[in-house]
Amino acid sequence: MKYALIGCGRIAVNHVKAVANNGLEFVAMCDIDDSKFEIMLEKAGCGEFPEAERYADYRLMLEEHPEIELVAIATESGEHARIALDCIDAGKHLIIEKPIAMSMADADEIVRRASEAGVKVSACHQNRFNVVVQELRRAVEAGRFGKLSHGSIHVRWNRGRQYYDQAPWRGTWAQDGGTLMNQCIHGIDLLRWMMGDEPLEVFGQIRRQFHDYLEAEDVGVAVVKFANGVVATIEGTSNVYPKNLEETLYVFGENGTVKIGGTSTNNIDVWDFADEAEADAANKGLEEATSNVYGNGHTSLYADVIDAIASNRAPYVDAVAGRNAVEMVLAIYKSQKTGLPVQLPLNDFASTDMEGEF
User: Quick check: 183 and 236 in contact, CB under 8 A?
Assistant: First the structure.
């Protein structure tokens, strides 16, 4: 399958590794900064892709390579939707880094237009493929928790001036959002998915406590009410001293308790069920080694998308999932702006509506 990558910065390394691991034909790569190409390939340990053509204009790349079937978008967040819609119009299947858009209008348009064009779009929420997350999902789907009580996600990380200085778009409302939209959206996606995926109401508060050189928040908390009666809490921050502490997901039910921990939801810290079987012993203390907070899920996500295209089915993490994760974050932002609980579905809000908040 012929492949192209748009955006060759920090996260692109994981995409290139996934390309190599899945045997895709890497036709072309695009970035407005041509110094990034070789840096990306070197960091990925993938010098075997010198034949991939380099472009500064993704539209020209698409025009000159109509044979490309799958495109990944890994640019700054504020450009995801515009590029995605152009690629959809060109008939390309897509993997879009999180968040898939910065407004509900754009997220909904990606879902709508992809459906009309018959192309597969996957949101790059790769943590759904974490080994321990998959174990938890199987337990949820099997009903082992019984009636769910509540859940929570804690993303307690550190991001300092050096991180934000890597790119001028970081921490801006138009191109990035704050810690909830950037660092915490993976955990927010997992929480929504595990809690029944039908949130009714969100009440949230955000603050910019330490990073006064940013436009957006560095800490946010929220309470979520779901249609099935479950309540959940969200806590996300980049203010933890002196380094990343944890990304922890809790699920509590009448017949089970699970705590997924580690720095990026990659370990099982607690695994207790009333119907415990011999197989459960393997999950107690299970750890998935990762080299960074991005985890190992990109390769599995790519494999799923490739199969989805070949089998003409929806990807495991489709555009609707990406839209729903964006909705959760934007609902928290809107709640901060209005001081009120926000009812879902959220029809019309954008990160840029928060400009001037701090």
Answer: yes
Tell me the per-residue pLDDT of 89-131, one tens digit each, with 9 for 90 and over.
Answer: 999 999 999 999 999 999 999 999 999 999 999 999 999 999 9
Assess contact for 261 and 267: CB atoms under 8 A.
yes
Q: Residue 6's beta-bridge partner residues? A: 30, 73
Q: Are strands 219-226 and 199-207 parallel, antiparallel or unpaired?
A: antiparallel
Q: Is residue 141 part of a domain?
A: yes
Location of structure tokens 């010198």: 50
Strand partners, 292: none
Distance CA 92, CA 76 (A): 20
The answer to whether residues 85 and 165 belong to one domain is no
Q: CA-CA distance, 214 to 174, in Å (whole number)? A: 12
pTM value > 0.85: yes
Residue whose entry in the numeric block shows the structure tokens 């990807």: 315
- Record the tokens describing residue 194, joined without a space: 């595990």
Dump pLDDT digits (tens) for 319-338: 999 999 999 999 999 999 99
Q: Please report, for the domain that includes residue 24, its CATH number.
A: 3.40.50.720
